[in-house]
Amino acid sequence: MIRRLAPFLIAFALAACASAPSYAPAAAPNGAGYSERQIESNRFFVTYRASGSADAALLQDYALLRAAEVTLERGGEWFWVDRRGLDEEGSYNSGPRFSVGLGGASFGGNSGVGVGVGMNFPLGGGQQTQRAHSATLEMRIGEGPKPADPNAYDAREISANLRARLTAPPR
Questions:
Q1: Is the dihedral of CA 63, 65, 67, 73 positive or negative?
Q2: Residue 106 phi, psi (nearest 5)
Q3: pLDDT in tens, 120-170
Q4: DSSP helix/strand/coil, 61
Q5: Is the pTM of this model over 0.90?
């Protein structure tokens, strides 16, 4: 009985471990979390990396939030995003899926082969979700009045709005 339940228990345990990344600094180079690298006196690469793949929009929001913090920490009021990069995993459709698996094993004098078939019918519709491993912004801190351009951001507004949205309890 335990042997039959083992694959389900393993799948459940792995699903429980998969969670949205949290906003925190990276503990190591190329580790999960945010980091920045100064490339000129007012220009930075800001990156947010997930430990696996995560919702690309969330990673982009985390990178944008860190860009706002870098701007405020350095006495700026606004920043300009020159380039955006996304280390994409691809996208998947959350609609119905079908999968087939084949495996074999040998234990001492015994061997076995198994075939598995699975179908998934999510109950939430078929919306497209983009997944990524990291999001990077090349940004520069601006001085003077903020330009009326979609690539220029008010650091205080971005910080307040993103923090409120990202820390709000899910509905």
A1: negative
A2: -135, 125
A3: 555 555 556 789 999 999 999 998 999 999 999 999 999 999 999 988 666
A4: helix
A5: no
